[in-house]
Amino acid sequence: MNYLGKARPGLAVKLIVLEGPYEGDYRTYFEEVGERIISLVVPSAGGAIVPISEGTVVEIVFQESRYTYRVKARIIQRIAVPIPLFVLEYLGDIEKIQRRNYVRIEAFFPLSYRVVTKNGMSEEIEASMIDLSGGGMRFRTRRKVEDWAMLYTRLTLPKYEIHMPAKVCRVQQLDTIRRWDVSIEFVEISEKLRDRIIRTVFDLQREMLKKGLTQNDG
Asked: Considering the domain 103-211 in this protein, what is its CATH number?
């Protein structure tokens, strides 16, 4: 299956050179993304750009949402200005190779959200967090939320306040009372913000382990 739509400008990339004098892994990001042709910012190592030759076959690995993707590509052109770029052509379809797993743990940090609509965003709505992971969270709200709705969330952690978009994955009404449990997945979240959430989850996990409690994966 082709996951072409998962690649987008600005997304972080691991560029893997499979053989030759520059064999190894390099960090960079997508500059432009087309159907078969893409460009990547030329990575650097030791303060100098990595001069990988035209014609070199590489593997591109990137993460989007909770999944990891890869595709083989060939460097067909090197561009020097205005910024150093590699232009590459795909040698096959993008493949999903892994579902990212995150520790999910009970958490009760302050949370609010806005519902994204055709006309903008709703007013800010307070909610009660139930659990949290690096991939998403679950909360309880007195406002009905539609399946697959897009939200813009504000999450207040002990050391950070994080604003990020999220997609609703599951909504469950609680018996006959007017409350809903909502599971959401973070989307378009930077690795820096995700790392902050994961560090917070690990801190909670350590505290729970000290108390002899357990946690789930999710």
From this structure: 2.40.10.220
> Per-residue pLDDT tens for 67-95?
788 899 999 999 988 899 999 999 988 88
Q: Give the span between the Cα atoms of 54 and 8, in whole angstroms.
A: 23
Average pLDDT over residues 133-142: 93
> Domain extents for the chain?
4-99, 103-211
* pTM of the predicted protein model: 0.56
Tell me the CATH number of domain 4-99, given options 2.30.110.10, 3.50.50.60, 3.40.50.1820, 3.40.50.300. 2.30.110.10
43: three-class secondary structure by DSSP: coil
Q: Cα(155)–Cα(164) distance, rounded to whole angstroms?
A: 8
Q: How far apart are CA 147 and CA 60, in angstroms?
A: 33
The residue type found at 212 is: G
